[in-house]
Amino acid sequence: MEMGKLILARHHESEWNKLGLWTGRRDRHLTEYGFQKSAEMGELIRDIRIDRAFASMQVRSIETLSSMLEATGRSNIPEEHSAALDERDYGDYTGKDKWAMQKLIGEERWDNLRREWDCPIPNGETLKMVSERVLPYFLETVLPHIRKGENVLVVAHGNSCRALIKYIEKISDEDIKDVEMPFGAVYVYDLDKAGHMTKKQTLSAPSDVNA
Q: Chain-centre distance of CA 46, in angstroms?
C-alpha cells in the first residue's frame, strides 16, 4: 500500500509569543495575528487531501489546527489531541522575558538553553526529554495511519516539532541545535515505513513573530 503524507506545522503566534515570554506548558490563546496566519497556513494545503489530524492538548495548537482545517474546508475530519505533543516545559523560566534573560545569562548560554539537544532548564525539560514523549507517540499512534495511506496533519510546538524533525530527517544530536521550525511554515513529508523522510516540501505563510 502506498504511504500517506505527513503534514507538520507549528502553532502560530500566541499571546505570550507576542510579549516575548517563554510559554512552555502554560496555556495561552492565539492572538488575532496568530488566527489570521493559521488560516493562511491552511490555504497552503487546501489542495492536499487530509484524512486525520493531531494536535497537542494546548489551546494555541488546537486553535491553529482548527483555523487551518476551516481554511481548507475540512473541519469534520477525525482529530486527536495528546499531551505527548505539548511544548517543552521551560520550568523556572516559564513566563520570563526571553530577551531580558538573553542579556542576563549571555547569548551563548541562552542559545544553548533554547536549541541544544540535552541542555537542562531548572525544573524543566531538555529537548531530549521532549523527544522521549513525542517520538513514541508518533511511531505508535501517528505513523500507523500514514502507513495505511492516510494523509495526516500534525500541529504541535517549536520543540515538539523539532523532536519529530530530528527523527524524520535523521539529524544528529549535535546538528539539531541549528534546526528551527519557523512560524508559518508547513512541511509536507513523504516517509518510508520507519517514518524517515524520502521527500520534503516546504510551504510558508510569511510571518513576523517576537519569539
A: 19
Domain-wise residue ranges, the chain = 5-204
In the chain, the amino acid numbered 95 is G
In whole angstroms, what is the distance from residue 75 CA to residue 89 CA?
30
Residue 93: phi, psi to the nearest 5? -90, -5
Per-residue pLDDT tens digits for 29-74:
999 999 999 999 999 999 999 999 999 999 999 999 999 999 999 8
Q: Looking at this protein, which amino acid is placed at residue 44?
A: L
Rounded to 10°, the helix 98-105/107-115 angle is: 130
Q: Which residues pair with 190 in a beta bridge?
A: 5, 199
176: cell is 539539531
**Run of H or E residues at 9:** strand 5-10
- Taking the C-alpha atoms of residue 7 and residue 79, their distance in angstroms, rounded to an integer, is 14
Asked whether the whole model's pTM tops 0.90, one would answer: yes
For residue 12, give the C-alpha cell: 502560530
Catalytic residues: 11, 87
CA 27 to chain centre: 15
Q: Which amino acid is at 152?
A: V
Between CA 76 and CA 81 the distance in angstroms is: 15
Give me the CATH topology for the region 5-204: Rossmann fold (3.40.50)
Residue count of the chain: 211
